[in-house]
Amino acid sequence: MAVTAPVDLSVADLHPALGDPALTSMNFLNEVSERYPAAVSLAAGRPYEEFFDLAAVHRHLDTFHRHLIDELGHRPEQARRLLLQYGRTKGIVHHLIARNLAVDEGIVIDPESVVVTVGCQEAMFLVLRALRAGPADVLLAVAPTYVGLTGAARLVDLPVWPVAAGPAGVDLADLRVQVRRARAAGCRPRACYLMPDFANPSGVSIDPDDRRRLLALAAEEDLLLLEDNPYGLFHLDDGPRPPTLKALDTDRRVVYLGSFAKTVLPGARVGYVVADQRVAGADGRVGPLADQLAMIKSMVTVNTAPIAQAVIGGRLLEHGCSLVPANTRERAAYARNLRHLVAGLARRFPDRPSRPAAVRWTVPAGGFFVVVTVPFAVDDALLDRSARDYGVLWTPMAHFYDNTAPVCALRLSVSAVTPEQIDLGLDRLAALITDELARRAPSSVC
Ligand SMILES: Cc1ncc(COP(=O)(O)O)c(C=O)c1O
């Protein structure tokens, strides 16, 4: 729709991040799906909705309320105030998050190093805001990178330097090169952001040996690691999960970012950060980085809604603070869908001489995402055509790279669909790819 109304402000006079592709990406993708509501969405990374249960929300709230009184010894009026009044900046479920991390991940931390945030997104923002002290500071991030991280970095004027993922999830040699290159250019790499488990968007996980090597490299190069782990519980195979970086972290190198959006409820908007790095504050007192983050939070969201925290806290309490048994059904549904999608791709693009050589896909060991590589550039115009003419949505991988170079890949998500929708979506995607291959001369960029 053309804008004809007179304008009062120019975007050029607002923060330079406004209008940046990192900030417009999510809106663009939402707009496309709103414009084509009948299209099958293999784009949305939102969790499966069929298990959402409004009655359970009330129960969780009650459970946490009882916990305040029966286990923490609060008087009824104190408990009421804790739930309904403004509250502690660092949150009121920090002790349960610490217990959850101990039970599920073997991460042992002081609850005082936790800040409960409005989703993991706020946690990322707080950490980047704190780390960006001056114009020489840069953030390293394994590319392709979650666009929410890139957008948050833009808002705090922190340039993001890509580090190659390689087939192993992080190219350690490239990480060292980038750290040194940044320093040689007079920049200060403050941290490297990465997702060791079923990364969004790549789906790739870092193996346990590389996790240890990564920590050793971070120590050698004196670098912080920002570990984001929203998908770690959703592994395909039974058996032990690899240790998180934070579980292996013996010298406080890792800032751990957590989200309850996928493991409890996205509508609660609760996440957290574990920041146990020691900081001498302005008053000379030494405390965890979490205290500094809380100071920033007090000027951004004041505190995370205690009612929302109570819902998360109640769910944790009802499962002995473990989200593993609490997500049995969810894990099974995501695993079923992921297997179904990978098998469906193999059926539609069989490994025969007639198969277009350059149609390939990742086979992740868990999580929500599969990346399909094709022999032509995949851009927003193609997505629009895919939605309009073929009735299927996906995410151009170009959205996860912080440059304008053409990218010949797209991300498929299995989290918010049924196997039947996956079949339909893949039929439509296969038709699109076949037509594109017939229509286009081989691209020199792919
Ligand atoms: C890798 C990653 N980090 C963070 C987030 C944001 O999490 P939250 O919904 O808790 O803000 C997401 C959401 O999809 C994500 O994929």
Write up this protein.
- The protein is α/β, with parallel strands linked by helices.
- It has 15 helices and 15 strands.
- The strands form four sheets. It has a seven-stranded mixed sheet with strand order 2-8-7-6-5-3-4, sandwiched between helices.
- Helix 2 (54-71) packs across helix 11.
- The protein is globular, with a radius of gyration of 23 Å.
- The mean pLDDT is 95.
- Bound molecules: pyridoxal-5'-phosphate (PLP).
- Pyridoxal-5'-phosphate is lined by residues 45, 119-121, 146, 148, 195, 200, 228, 230, 259, 261, 266, 271.
Short note summarizing the structure:
The protein has 446 residues and is α/β, with parallel strands linked by helices. 42% of the residues lie in helices and 14% in strands.
Write the layout of secondary structure elements.
Layout: H1 21-35, E1 40-41, H2 54-71, H3 76-84, H4 94-105, E2 114-117, H5 119-131, E3 137-143, H6 147-155, E4 160-164, H7 172-184, E5 188-194, H8 208-221, E6 224-228, H9 245-248, E7 254-259, E8 271-274, E9 278-280, E10 286-288, H10 289-297, H11 306-318, H12 323-326, H13 328-348, E11 360-361, E12 369-373, H14 380-390, E13 392-393, E14 395-396, E15 409-413, H15 419-439
Parallel strand pairs: 1-13, 3-4, 3-5, 5-6, 6-7
Antiparallel strand pairs: 2-8, 7-8, 9-10, 11-12, 12-15, 14-15
The structure holds pyridoxal-5'-phosphate (PLP).
